Amino acid sequence: MSFLADTLYIFGHKKVGLVRLDSGFCQKNVFDYLEQQLNYIVAARFLHPIQRLIDKQQSWIVIDDGIEICSKTYQAESGDKARRIVIVRQKIKKRPNASGKTLNLFPEDELHRNYRYSA
């Protein structure tokens, strides 16, 4: 947390429009800090609850050939409030260099094996 506060302090009076962070910052105290003052995007950790949320998703919006998104509200068991999570899936056959993760909770699932996910 101090790394983030120190980094923002270095910017001084410059306006920060959006903070993007990797999944190492996906924790309640970081969200609480950011929500006081900044817009943010933090990559989700693909723990089992997130993978189950993705598995239940039925309605995807096609963005481009092989890319689909959906938006859900998610509250972690240890969380004090729900937050919006945007999930992106990319079809590996159409986008072989797609970044993201496979859902290791469902290794035998034919549908999930065909996609890489990020959230």
Name a few traits of the molecule.
119 residues, globular, four-stranded antiparallel β-sheet, alpha+beta, two-stranded parallel ribbon, 6 strands, 4 helices
Number of strands: 6
**First CA to last CA: what distance?**
21 Å
Molecular shape: globular
Number of continuous helical runs: 4
Q: How are helices and strands ordered from N to C?
A: HEHEHEEEHE
Structure overview:
This protein has helices at 2-10, 28-35, 48-56, 110-113; strands spanning 19-21, 40-42, 61-64, 67-74, 83-91, 115-118. The chain is α+β, with helices and mostly antiparallel strands and 119 residues long. The strands form 2 sheets. A 4-stranded antiparallel sheet has the order 3-4-5-6. Strands 1-2 form a two-stranded parallel ribbon.
Layout of SSEs?
Layout: H1 2-10, E1 19-21, H2 28-35, E2 40-42, H3 48-56, E3 61-64, E4 67-74, E5 83-91, H4 110-113, E6 115-118
Parallel strand pairs: 1-2
Antiparallel strand pairs: 3-4, 4-5, 5-6
Characterize this entry briefly.
This protein has 119 residues and is an alpha+beta fold. It contains four helices and six strands; from the N terminus they run αβαβαβββαβ.
